[in-house]
Structure formats: structure tokens, C-alpha cells
Design a protein that fits this description.
The chain is about 50% helix and about 10% strand. By secondary structure, it is α+β, with helices and mostly antiparallel strands. Among the domains are: about 140 residues, Phosphorylase Kinase, domain 1 (2-Layer Sandwich), CATH 3.30.200; about 190 residues, no CATH class. The strands form four sheets. Strands 1, 2, 3, 4, 5 and 6 form a six-stranded antiparallel β-sheet that branches. The chain is globular, with a radius of gyration of 25 Å.
Length: about 600
């Protein structure tokens, strides 16, 4: 191995490499239930009937950014980003030069350990600058830091550790400002805050770039139950839209640069076009309803079906563009699950945790297959801060501010890709690679002219099959590897940017849990049903023993799980260890 590539070779533009994963809301036209539509109309009238005679008139709302503020903010961004980029480029160039000159001068080449030290020092410096910049600027850049922190499989330890504090919590608004926003948005003329909320926790459950969430209890007038109240930060919209313009300006000169994994300009333009929807909580509430209503009813039969996770439901009469009141889910985000396990005496790396990890992945995979392949409308931000481990052991999914609707054609082609990946004889069979590659191109994926013939199939496997160790064509699985199939991408279909983002986040989750996971294998049954319903000839095949095995496994899984939960703690741990060992043996082929 070349010393330049030892251990981890960062892209020179490390600061922006993660931004294909950045916040990217995109919605279909509003399709809320009648109750939400009525609430929207009512609450628009409420906003015009705000009671100005309250006790908190001295609370000052943040003022919109002035042109000078925006210029200073952009200057801070550029003054931080450019030196980091330059340092990576200069180090990369220096190591390459040394690698060529040392043999000519009869000097030994740098060892892997020496290169590791050089890169580690550079990562530490870059991570420190990035953390400082994000904490200073906040806004859109916070999401950047959250994504880096959640991708231990992709980014150096120095970055993930430095930014881990951004995962769940940001500098919160004062409770006085929160109450002021809520009163202006929700309270009818003459109605007091205490007439809506019997209890309202002053310390927020979480504070993110767009909003923060408080636990509360409604008065009997509004049902009396426990709720979560999501409150938008005043003046945040203009700040985030200005941030995305900076990223567009950074990405535009990089179009066509071979070292860049993808065309980030296309990604950021979609963000700019769609980011405004992130600030509309009425649309978010409608998205919650739409996704839940799809999940609970089988579109083929019209019958009710089980949903393997829980979602909050909005309170229709308490929803406005800037405040969203919804069911409260008791639990902790996945990013803090390991800490909670240790408190309960469970080893986060032990067999019980691994079985729960598989349950978690299976639940998320099931829900996303139904949404993406059946309706094409899905939650587009499944990072660890939005996935909850609830107090009863079930799984929760929150924050529907980022959703996406893909076209019927894209949905069906994705289904064909899943079936082709699942049906392949091997990872190197030429016929399978041709079929998978052609479907990837049909999705709108474009590769560079000098890409290998196996490139399209390798990209599909990289996106949808995390269990593959060796990609066809000699490509590396690491996203930032110089030999990654992602480097072959000339352009990625804008309509599928968020599908790719969601699959990458699920893949990162499986890596974080150290569980090999193939989305294509898990999605294939739903994909076949979707294609059968659309009249595609791609799924006309005989029922195989593999299908029967899946059916039996699905039928027995619930019974075994319920029985295991009744065992004593020691016996349950031994059973979990045996199950994990058996699964590992089966996967290794022993």
C-alpha cells in the first residue's frame, strides 16, 4: 500500500464530503387529513387574533439577519473552510511527492504508522476548527456536524468524537421565549398559556437547528394527555437559507472535479429549492398522518396490518406553521442507547444488545421498504437522534420535517433493482452484473466515461447491500476510498438523492451496530409484491424453498421473541449468546 493511502485517505474537501447527507427536505403537495386541513385554516385565523396583552412583552424575539450579518456569517464560513481544505491538499501533495522522491534518494518510504500519525494530527486540527465553526455559526452547519458524528464508519475518530455533542442537543432557547412563541401561535384571543397546558417542562427534551421540543401535559379542554411540543426558533429560516447559499457557492467550482464523490452542486440546489418546507410544521404534521395511514393498511388488500415501530401523532387543533403539538414517546434516542444499557447492566457489545440491534434494523428496514417501494413517500432523515428506544423496548421514529415523494417510475425501477440484487447468483456473475447495472442506469445514475463496466452494478451494491465485502470490478466498499464506486459517479438523479441518503444512514447504523445487513435482501419481498401489483413481468417466477423459509421465519419470529422475554435474566443472556453464535456460524458458511 502506498503510504499516502495508509489507513485512511481523506478527500481534500473533507468538510463538504458529508453534505450529500445534509438536511434535504422535499415534499409532495400537501395531502393532510381533513382534520389537519381544518386545523390549518383555523390556526391561520388564530394568528391574526393574537392576544397582545400578555405578561411577557419584554421578551425580545431575535431580529432577522441584516445584509451585514449575512456577509459576516459567510466570511466566517469561508475563513474556516478554506484553510482546512488547503491543509488536506498540501499534506496529500507532500506525501505523494515524498513517496516518489524517497526511493530516488535512497531514503526509506514513510511507513503506515508514520502516515497514520500525520493524518491523525491533521484530522485533530480539522475537527477542532470544524467544531468551533459549527458552534459559532450554528444554523444549517449543525446538521452537518450531526451527520459526521453519526457516521463512525465513514469519518475519522477525531471528527466523530469532536462533534458527538451535536447529535441530540444544541444551545436551547429560553423558556420565556418558547412560551412567547407558543402563545402567539396557539392561543386564541383572550386565552392564556395555562388554559392550553396544565404542565410545561422548562428544560427541553432536545434542541436542534430548526426547533426545540418540550414535554408538556394538556389541560382537560384539549384532552389532558402528555404531549411533546415542537417550537421553531424565531428568525431561523433566513439564516439556514443563507447557509445553503454558501455551500452552493463552494460546490459550484468543484463540478467535474474527479476527486469529488458526487456533484454536490445538484444536491445543494435541491436543498435550496426545498428547504423552505422544513419550516412548515403543518406540512410536517400532515406527513406524519400520511405515512402512518399508509403503514397501517395493506395497499393490496385494504386490511389493517402491524407496524413494527411507533410514531407520534399530531394534535390537529394544536398545529401551526411554527408550533407542533404531538404525542409524547417515552424513551431515549439511539445515540444514547448504549449509555442506558450500561445503567441497566446490559453490555452494549453483548449478545442481548446485538439481538436488539437486529430487531431495530429489521423494523426500520421494514418500514422504509413499505414507504419507499409501496407509496414512494418516506421519512428522509433516519439518523440516530431521530430513532428512539422506548421505555417498553419498542422502537420509535420521530421528526418528520424531512420527507420525500418519488415518482412511480422511480419507485418501480428501485423495486426491480432490489429483486435483481436478491436473485443474483453471485457478486461476479456477468449476466447478473449486466442486469443490475442496466437497472442502475435506468434509475438515472450516470458514470464517468472511463468507469469500469462493472461500475453501475457496483454502485447499486454499495447503496443497497451492506453485506457485500468485495464489490465487482475490484472496487472498494469504503466511501472515501480512492477506489470507491462512488468516485465513478458523474451525476446522481436528483429525485433519488434522499433515497440514497436514507439507505446510507441505515447502512451507517448497521455498521455502528456491527451487524452485516443487506437492504436489498430485506426489501425484496415487498419489491416483488409491488412489481406484481404493477403488472411487471420481472417477478413472474415459481415459489422457491427460499420464499417458504422466509415465511416460516417471519411466522416464528414473534413467538420466539415473546417466549424469550419470559425467561430469567441469566437464561435470556445465554439464549441470546447462542442465537448470535448460530447466526454468525450460518453467515460464515461453517
Amino acid at each position: 500500500m502506498s503510504p499516502v493511502n495508509a489507513l485512511f485517505v481523506p478527500q481534500p474537501f473533507l468538510f463538504i464530503c458529508i453534505l450529500i447527507l445534509a438536511k434535504s427536505p422535499s415534499r409532495a403537495p400537501f395531502k393532510g387529513s381533513p382534520s389537519l386541513l381544518q386545523a390549518y385554516e383555523i390556526n391561520n385565523k388564530i394568528i391574526d387574533e393574537i392576544n397582545d396583552d400578555d405578561d411577557d412583552d419584554d421578551i425580545q424575539f431575535p431580529q432577522p439577519l441584516t445584509p451585514v450579518d449575512r456577509a459576516l456569517r459567510a466570511s466566517r464560513f469561508w475563513s474556516s473552510a478554506v484553510p482546512v481544505i488547503f491543509n488536506y491538499y498540501s499534506t496529500y501533495t507532500k506525501l505523494n511527492l515524498l513517496n516518489r522522491l524517497n526511493p530516488l534518494l535512497n531514503r526509506p518510504c514513510l511507513t503506515d504508522s508514520e502516515c497514520e500519525i500525520i493524518w491523525s494530527d491533521l484530522h485533530a486540527s480539522g475537527a477542532s476548527v470544524l467544531e468551533s465553526t459549527i458552534n459559532d455559526l450554528k444554523g444549517f452547519y449543525v446538521k452537518t456536524g450531526q451527520i459526521i458524528a453519526s457516521r463512525q464508519d465513514l469519518f475519522p475518530r477525531e471528527y466523530t468524537e469532536a462533534l458527538s455533542g451535536l447529535t441530540d442537543y444544541l444551545d436551547p432557547m429560553s423558556v420565556q421565549l418558547v412560551r412567547k412563541v407558543v402563545e402567539r401561535e396557539l392561543c386564541l384571543k383572550g386565552e392564556r398559556f395555562e388554559e392550553v397546558f396544565r404542565e410545561f417542562d422548562e428544560i427541553p427534551l432536545g434542541a436542534a437547528s430548526v426547533a426545540q421540543v418540550h414535554r408538556a401535559r394538556l389541560t382537560s379542554k384539549y384532552g389532558g394527555h402528555e404531549v411533546a411540543v415542537k417550537v421553531q426558533r424565531p428568525g431561523i429560516e433566513q439564516k439556514l437559507l443563507g447557509d445553503i447559499k454558501n455551500l452552493i457557492a463552494l460546490a459550484k467550482p468543484l463540478r467535474g472535479v474527479k476527486e469529488m464523490p458526487v456533484d454536490y452542486y445538484v444536491v445543494f440546489k435541491e436543498l435550496e429549492d426545498q428547504l423552505a418546507d422544513e419550516f412548515d410544521f403543518v406540512a410536517e404534521a400532515a406527513a406524519m398522518d400520511r405515512i402512518w395511514n399508509h403503514l397501517i393498511v395493506d395497499p393490496r388488500t385494504g386490511e389493517k396490518r402491524d407496524v413494527p415501530l411507533r410514531m407520534p401523532r399530531p394534535i390537529p387543533e394544536l398545529v401551526t406553521r411554527r408550533v407542533l403539538v404531538m404525542d409524547y414517546l417515552e424513551g431515549v434516542p439511539l445515540s444514547r442507547a448504549a449509555e442506558e444499557m450500561r445503567k441497566k447492566g446490559i453490555d452494549p457489545d453483548g449478545p442481548e444488545a446485538k439481538i436488539f440491534g437486529e430487531k431495530l434494523l429489521r423494523s426500520l428496514t421494514d418500514v422504509f421498504s413499505r414507504c419507499i417501494l409501496e407509496s414512494g413517500f418516506f421519512h428522509a432523515d433516519p439518523h440516530p437522534g431521530n430513532i428512539f428506544v422506548l421505555s417498553d423496548g419498542s422502537i420509535g421514529l420521530i421528526d418528520f420535517g424531512q420527507v420525500k415523494q418519488i415518482s412511480g417510475r422511480a419507485k418501480n425501477t428501485l423495486a426491480k433493482v432490489m429483486v435483481a440484487l436478491d436473485d443474483r447468483v453471485s457478486d461476479t456473475n456477468p449476466e447478473d452484473l449486466e442486469t443490475i447495472g442496466n437497472l442502475a442506469l435506468e434509475l438515472g445514475v450516470e458514470l464517468r466515461e472511463d468507469a469500469k463496466p462493472e461500475g453501475p452494478a457496483a454502485v447499486a451494491m454499495w447503496l443497497f447491500d451492506g453485506s457485500v465485502k468485495d464489490l465487482p470490478g475490484g472496487y472498494d466498499y469504503g466511501e472515501l476510498s480512492p477506489n470507491s464506486p462512488v468516485k465513478e459517479l458523474k451525476s446522481f438523479p436528483q429525485d433519488l438523492v434522499l433515497v440514497g441518503r436514507s439507505t446510507v444512514l441505515l447502512k451507517g447504523l448497521s455498521s455502528r451496530l456491527n451487524i452485516p445487513w443487506s437492504l436489498s435482501a430485506e426489501w425484496a419481498p415487498v419489491a416483488r409484491q409491488v412489481l406484481a401489483g404493477s403488472g411487471s413481468k420481472k417477478v413472474n417466477r415459481k415459489v422457491t424453498l427460499k420464499d417458504v423459509g422466509r415465511l416460516v421465519k417471519s411466522w416464528g419470529k414473534g413467538k420466539v421473541e415473546r417466549g424469550a422475554n419470559k425467561l430469567p435474566k441469566g437464561a435470556r443472556r445465554r439464549l441470546a449468546a447462542a442465537v448470535v453464535w448460530a447466526r454468525g456460524t450460518r453467515r460464515s458458511g461453517n
